[in-house]
Write a sequence for this structure.
């Protein structure tokens, strides 16, 4: 009988944000898989280790997903990872693939999930706290009330179109494009009443919160990859 | 010294989706507050009870939030709830207000949170798995990959505008407006390649999943309040 692949969301950074199911799934699995080349580089592994140090006794499968955009190279690489995972599942092993945040929101796990299911093997998603919920909790703000819409906009976003959505806009993992985005935002907010916040490395020891566009502008050169920017329509009321 | 109000997200329904922090917060608080007139009516209370039956020994404060839209009546009601909570905080009590899903996404807790902070008392948000993440996990689908945007549209939505957003659209707690929405969706999808799913009472014992617009149309008369509809741009690939 085939083993099962579990895509386990471990939340954005604080080990207390782990769910009971995530922890139980990891404990019962034969192996833990991580998308980096070793344990030390994996945020997700560190999060679990703080909540459950015994994870160090588990066998670890390193499946580094390259951060490249060339489709062919990426496909070939996925194919190789897939074969490694399939081989384990065929041997009846259950594998917990760790992913920060929630596996359904911009995770590298999804590509593997679809491929494994396409091959007829069982793969299951275990929800985690998505970073934007933890970010809002850290900032002590709501994301949406009553009729407000919420829009989640991915990393590579650069234009101004998404800023014109109504309600709350969440810009995820802005990375290298963050500086340009903040410059756009600075111009845009002059004519649009809004609240602007950001959190870098939410839930981690080096977490930083920013309140207002001025703080973002001042720090735009040094913000890390895991930065979430929130733009709420309307004037501040707290 | 003032007690603290905690808005605790308990996830959408399955007790295993509770976070370590949510459970610890409830355990350490002096009282548990729920937005219904008794324990039996509270989904959130039932979720905790399955994970931690000892909750029955906690003192429970019932703060029923009326489902009304008249602003003045609502304000007067909130004011009354506020005074009850303030009185407890002034006595140094810590209060865990339970809310299904995540407290930052369309929760009744947010109104109380803002008022308590405005009065200078401490209030903190404890993240929970939002229903739409659990819904995607149940359906075994991703919400967003690569450049895809995600749009979360609240209950009362009726028009066609939100359907034209790119990427993934999540329609939350569609309630009484669901039937009309499904009728719109049925017309709309004829000219727009998309995948359509829904989950009712996600994570609960009476959870139901729907795949494809035909299943939604067939069941539109009997779908419960806690129904989430997901519309993903593009043709199905699984």
């Amino acid at each position: 009988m085939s083993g099962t692949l579990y895509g386990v969301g471990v939340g954005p950074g604080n080990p207390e944000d782990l769910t009971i199911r995530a922890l139980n799934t990891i404990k019962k699995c034969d192996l833990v898989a991580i998308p980096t080349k070793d344990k030390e580089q994996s945020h997700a592994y560190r999060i679990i280790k703080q909540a459950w140090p015994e994870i160090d006794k588990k066998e670890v499968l390193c499946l580094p997903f390259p951060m490249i955009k060339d489709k062919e190279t990426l496909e070939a690489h996925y194919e190789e990872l897939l074969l490694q995972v399939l081989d384990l599942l065929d041997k009846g092993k259950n594998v917990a693939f760790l992913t920060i945040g929630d596996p359904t929101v911009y995770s590298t796990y999804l590509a593997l999930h679809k491929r494994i299911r396409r091959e007829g093997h069982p793969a299951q998603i275990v929800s985690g706290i998505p970073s934007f919920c933890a970010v809002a909790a850290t900032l002590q703000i709501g994301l949406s009330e009553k009729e407000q819409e919420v829009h989640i906009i991915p990393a590579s976003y650069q234009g101004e179109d998404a800023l014109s959505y109504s309600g709350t806009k969440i810009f995820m993992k802005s990375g290298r494009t963050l500086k340009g985005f903040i410059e756009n935002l600075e111009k845009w907010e002059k004519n649009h009443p809004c609240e602007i916040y950001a959190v870098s490395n939410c839930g981690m020891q080096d977490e930083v919160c920013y309140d207002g566009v001025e703080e973002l502008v001042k720090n735009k050169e040094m913000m890390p990859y895991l930065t979430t920017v929130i733009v709420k329509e309307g004037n501040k009321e707290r």
